[in-house]
Amino acid sequence: MLGLGAAGVAVGAGLQSQVNRALAPIGGIIPAAGGFRYYSVVGDVPPRGERDYRLTVGGLAERPRTFTLADLRALPQTRLTRDFQCVTGWRVEDVAWAGVALPDLLDAVGVADGATAVRFRSFDGEYTESLTLSQARRRDVLVATEMLGKPVTHDHGGPVRLYVAPMYGYKSLKWLGGIELTRRVVPGYWERRGYDVDAWVGRSNGRSDEAT
After folding, report:
1. Each residue's pLDDT tens digit, 61-89
2. Where do the domains of the chain lie?
3. Any transmembrane segments, and where (predicted)?
């Protein structure tokens, strides 16, 4: 499983088999439906609903805050349609997303001096991811509350998930529960197992295509 990175597209079938074997003892894979495959590294994740969902944003934030779903919906909303590309080779085209652009959420809490990266934690208690601050400031990185024209379902990582449009799917953390501004990039769950920290899909345009 080491060194998957962008090579996943070329050898997707083989990598999918490896991922299946790696995940099976610690959670497994829900079979594909609607073009998506559903992954969890911890098995069953208890759902959270309107009343019990909270997103904490802290670390090197000037105004740390906890957001409810209503709070997130009250912030400026961004909509975009982009493909979802898994590192193991499968892709779902033209997925409609909506939510808070991560730059707008960061502006709401303020970025303190010394912050150069953003770390994300899943409320599954295990999965983490990170972006550099410049990556997190892209307009095509969403704290997504809607997907495919409706609220993000639990299997898709709802009620709130991360969507990083220009990167492979493992960067788009499901069941988003915490965001932390940090002094450096902290490798996430799969990076600690050999995946690339920078997971651009098509490096020729991954650094320049901005959503509006």
Report:
1. 999 999 999 999 999 999 999 999 999 88
2. 5-193
3. none
**Residue 66 to residue 58: CA distance in whole angstroms:** 9
Q: What digits encode the pLDDT tens for the residues 173-209?
A: 999 999 999 999 999 999 999 999 999 997 533 333 3
pTM of the model: 0.82
- Biggest alpha carbon–alpha carbon distance for the chain: 46
> pLDDT by residue (tens digit) across 145-168?
999 999 999 999 999 999 999 999
Rounded CA gap, 57 and 210, in Å? Answer: 24
Closest CA to 126 of 164, 172, 174: 174
Distance separating alpha carbons of residues 90 and 92, to the nearest angstrom? 7
Asked if CATH classification 3.90.1150.10 holds for the domain at 5-193, the reply, yes or no, is no
**Partners of residue 195 on adjacent β-strands:** none
CA geometry: angle at 55 spanning 50 and 58, to 5°? 165
Own/partner long-range contacts of 4-7 (Cβ < 8 Å, ≥24 apart):
4/87, 4/88, 4/190, 4/194, 4/195, 4/196, 5/87, 5/195, 5/196, 5/199, 6/87, 6/168, 6/196, 6/199, 6/200, 6/201, 6/203
